[in-house]
Amino acid sequence: MTEKRQSYTYKDAGVDIDAGDALVENIKPLAASTRRAGADADLGGFGGLFDLKAAGFKDPILVAANDGVGTKLKVAIDANKHDTVGIDLVAMCVNDLVVQGAEPLLFLDYMATGKLDVAQMTDVVAGIAEGCRQAGCALIGGETAEMPGMYSGADYDLAGFAVGAAERGTLLNGSDICDGDVILGLTSSGPHSNGYSLIRRLVDDEGHSYSDPSGFNDGTLADTLLAPTKIYVRSTLAAIKGGYVKGLAHITGGGFLENIPRVLPQGLLAEIDTTTWQLPAVFQWLQREGQISAREMARTFNCGIGMVVIVAPEHASKATEVMKANGETVYQIGYISSKDGVSACRVSGSASTWGETKDWSAQTGTQ
Question: Is pTM, for the whole model, over 0.70?
């Protein structure tokens, strides 16, 4: 019979309160660097506060979004590179806010791990703070959960929560999009945070290592695949405030085929022409490695276009100018046409663009 222990501590069970306290101290200056009007970004309370009046709003509608980074985190863990996934976390939330015409105001994070690695999680939060600075929102709080038995090894997971606002009557709902409108595409920085279950399967099946030279870009394969999701807040808000934008679509999981119809009124078709931009090298590599069809590419990845902007023809030039002035590379990638039935997207192009042996067409929606 074993002798019964007289005293247990939380640390004996795998939860290190001191490590959690050390992490909070590390991230306080990171949160403080995201201060903006309406938030002081101090950490330590039971809830974060935000003053809409101090932020300049008079009659605001709040818009909220939450998301994660998905299995891209496994690439970060395998490559032991954690300083960019926090940017992804912010981007996936704030890009969903801006498509509705809302200015991101505040952000909260949730981090869960089996064993808290203070240096690792500090790198993650440094990325979150950088994402918040890029988006102009304040990191006002979060939660770190150390849960032994729930996660194995160095695994961890992230969730993000963002809140934005727009003055009443200014939200984008796509209702005025019509036949003849122009579709502009803003370039992506890579796969962003979508399609990584397929990407990881290809890397494993084809015998690649994340430490390998990418072969089509500077740095390693991990460096390329961990390029953070682009944040489109400043550029698109500038175009929205200029009165040029009818609708926006964040190209995430589901690619063009699933995301663009979400912002179209019934009876409209988004026609996307792949000959209007060059498929980036990382997507060409993925298509070759997996022998992925053009249609599967268009419904899985952003294929180099991370945000779609729909404008009236007479505003296309000015909208492009404004977004370029805010750092975007912009292509005119298609137009809106009429159709019967529900809204849909059709992506087509020639053999020279997306690796097909003939012209192709991928389409969603009821025809």
Answer: yes
